[in-house]
Structure formats: structure tokens, C-alpha cells
Amino acid sequence: DGSWQPPEGRKGWSTDMAKGEAFNLTAYIAWGLAHAGEPSEEAGRWLAARVADVEDPYGLALATLAFLRADPDAGIGHATAARLAASATRDADGVSWVPAGSTGVGARGHTAQIETTALAIQALLLDGRQRLLAYDGLERLIQWRGKDGRFGTTQSTILSLKALLAADA
Questions:
Q1: Deepest of 25, 54, 104, 118, by most Cβ within 10 A of its Cβ?
Q2: Residue 97 in contact with residue 87, Cβ under 8 Å?
Q3: Per-residue confidence at 10, pLDDT binned at 50, 70, 90?
Q4: Average pLDDT of the chain, as a whole number
Q5: Rounded Cα gap, residues 30 and 43, in angstroms
Q6: Within 13 Å of residue 92, how many CA atoms lie on the same side as its CB?
């Protein structure tokens, strides 16, 4: 049907993902396939049929990346990016995106916020219509960088570096 379902009871799999987070898993894989030049039309249709029900910025960022990597002119990708932009959190520290729960790799709290913000920045830069908001998020992301150059976990560091490279491009 175009979706990827997490394996049940598989050792090392994120508990939240195993509870049925097929949307985020499918969006993550669809983004990777599209980035590699092999977009999955089935996954795109599956995501498009469900994205209206997604409110979590983490899922919206992944879906935006999947839609726009598969088809940069996709109206659904730009519409999803607009929803992602509207989900930004503004506070005294700047702009960020706070996920509803843990991420696909099991990050929670502060680290999940870094991952989600990095994904949102990449998605909004790819969209091209929310660049100023993406750069505001980038300023907040840079504040999270540790003295050792990392942004917390390996996953949050990789996604943060990808966001920095996307902004540089």
C-alpha cells in the first residue's frame, strides 16, 4: 500500500515507532528514496492520504521533505510546509519546533526538539517560501551546539549539520 510498518517486538526498535508510527517511518523512508533519486509514488500517495491528520511538527517536517524531494513543484509539499511553518514555537531563546513525542530513533525532550528543528529547517529551506523562519530556526539550532561541536546525540548532530549545509547552499 506504499507504507512501511515498524516491525512488532523487534529488539532495538523505538517503542513509539513500534506503537504504529507508520506515518513517520514511511515519510522518513520516502524522503530517503526521493533524495536518492528513486521516489516512491505509492509512498507519496499513502502519505498524501494521511497528512491532513498529522499535527506533530516532526511528522510534518518529514512529510514535507518527502513530498518536495519527490516533486519540488508539488502543491501538497508546499501546503505541508506552510503547516510546518505555522507549528513553530517562539520563545525567549528563538524559534524551534517541538515534537509531540519521541522521534523515530527514540529521542525525547531536548534532543527530540533539536532533531525536529533541524528537519523543519531543511524542509522550509527546500520549500523556499519560509526562508526567514528557517534562518530564525537556524540561529536557535546554532545555540544548541556544544563546545565539542556536537548537537547532542549522533542523530541530532547529523540532522543539524544537514540543516547548516542546506542553509549554506
A1: 118
A2: yes
A3: low
A4: 91
A5: 6
A6: 0
Long-range contact set of residues 69-78: C-beta below 8 Å, sequence gap at least 24: 69/31, 69/34, 69/35, 69/39, 69/126, 70/30, 70/34, 70/39, 70/40, 70/41, 70/44, 71/39, 71/44, 72/126, 76/48, 76/51, 77/127, 78/127, 78/129
User: Quick check: 39 pLDDT over 90?
Assistant: yes
The Cβ of residue 29 has, within 10 Å, a number of other Cβ atoms equal to: 17
pTM, entire model: 0.90
In single-letter form, the type of residue at position 8 comes to: E
Nearest to 149 by CA among 160, 134, 162: 160
Q: Which amino acid is at 6?
A: P
pLDDT digits (tens, 9 = 90+) for 59-78: 999 999 999 999 999 899 99
How far apart CA 17 and CA 28 sit, in angstroms, is 12
Q: Quote the cell numbers at residue 56.
A: 506533530
